[in-house]
Amino acid sequence: MSELAMRVEDYDYELPEELIAQDPLLKRDESRLMVLNKKSGDVTHRHFYDVKEYLRPGDCLVINNTKVIPARLYGVKAETGAAVEVLLLKRHEGDVWETLVRPGKKCRVGAKLSFGDGRLTAEVIDVVEEGNRMIRFSYEGIFEEVLDSLGEMPLPPYITHKLEDKNRYQTVYAKYEGSAAAPTAGLHFTKELLEEIKAMGVKIAEVTLHVGLGTFRPVKVENILEHHMHSEYFQVSKEACDIINETKRNGGRVISVGTTSTRTLESAVAEKIDGKNVCLEPKSGDTEIFIYPGYEFKVIDGLITNFHLPQSTLIMLVSALAGREHVLAAYEEAVKDRYRFFSFGDAMLIIDET
Question: I need a surface site. Which of 73, 261, 285, 295 has the fewest CB within 10 A?
Fold first, then answer.
């Protein structure tokens, strides 16, 4: 592995601002799909509903069934009435959450916050890594219901338009609440498309990774080896392991929907890989896995993903699978061909054959 590919700037590309998708398409599966052959680097231009043409009976599609919570809260400091914004990142225990607070410097330990005219109150109880605040919430009733009425969907900072339908920042298969951002590759699927894929003889395996802090943190070091990923909670059930292990045994391919599903699978690799008999084992906990070129994938054979930010850990993961040169050339072509980028943008399928 050359020293060059370890620098953050080696994962940069030019992106005109007008190509950052501000709104989701009316129909989820009508976004464009760039199919990238991970061996040759060749690309083919399709639409997302064509993705089924690249799947075969006996393959397995792996989806992340996490659900985004309305994690952005706007409130005031109880003492001064000064405006404050809180982004929920990770639930620790009970009503204690790790959060991102703006402005953070004025929210010291002991600061009391109020949201929705006091329907939800909070106290800063600790300051942790990189200035994040640990906050304990107080309320009457059920926290999720209070949050649903007061919170907003935590759209990424590069999306400036207001989201008219908050369900468009959820996958159609979202199930377990806990994410501060959507697993965006899954946003392209409709229930109908998933049923068509199942009817072809493709199995669907569900895993969970609650998308957290890493999504909001740029890589701040020059050498990517010095970058530290924040932990995110994941869970891989026995049922999912059985489906995926059987797929591998029978010579099928495992196609991961999104970088979050990929990181989940690669975090649940069996301690003893028995040829093709055992690849995964049931696991849950926190993962800090950072995948960049040089990484050898143990589980996935292909990946459905969106177009990612320059110099991000996500473009590094994609480069680990398809090769940095292939990925950057594909991105250059996507820019030239006016693809839509990032969370509400178009998709890419990385696979062996096109």
Answer: 285
Q: What Rg, from alpha-carbon coordinates, does the chain have?
A: 21
Terminal Cα-to-Cα distance of the chain (whole angstroms): 27
What is the distance between the alpha carbons of residues 318 and 295, in angstroms, rounded to a whole number? Answer: 11
Identify the three-state secondary structure at position 262. helix
- Show the domain range for 188: 3-68+165-351
Q: Are 290 and 338 in contact (CB under 8 A)?
A: no
Residues 342 and 236 in one domain: yes
pLDDT in tens, 195-245: 999 999 999 999 999 998 666 567 888 999 898 888 899 999 999 999 999
* Same domain? 78 vs 196: no
CATH number reported for the structural domain that contains residue 50 in this entry: 3.40.1780.10
Domain end point (choices 150, 176, 198) = 150
Q: What is the pLDDT of residue 276?
A: 58
Asked if residue 237 is part of any domain, the answer here is: yes
285 and 234 together in one domain: yes
Query: What CA–CA distance (Å, rounded) separates 270 from 136?
Result: 37
193 within domain boundaries = yes
Q: Is the confidence at residue 144, as pLDDT, over 80?
A: yes
CB 29 within 8 A of CB 188: yes
> In the structure encoding, which two tokens stand for residue 201, read together?
């003889």
* Strand order across the beta sheet in which 60-64 lies: 43-47, 32-37, 347-351, 302-306, 254-257, 60-64, 203-209, 232-236, 283-287
159 part of a folded domain: no
Is 322 buried (19+), middle (13-18) or exposed (0-12) by CB count in 10 A? buried
* Residue closest to 87 by CA, chosen among 125, 133, 56: 133
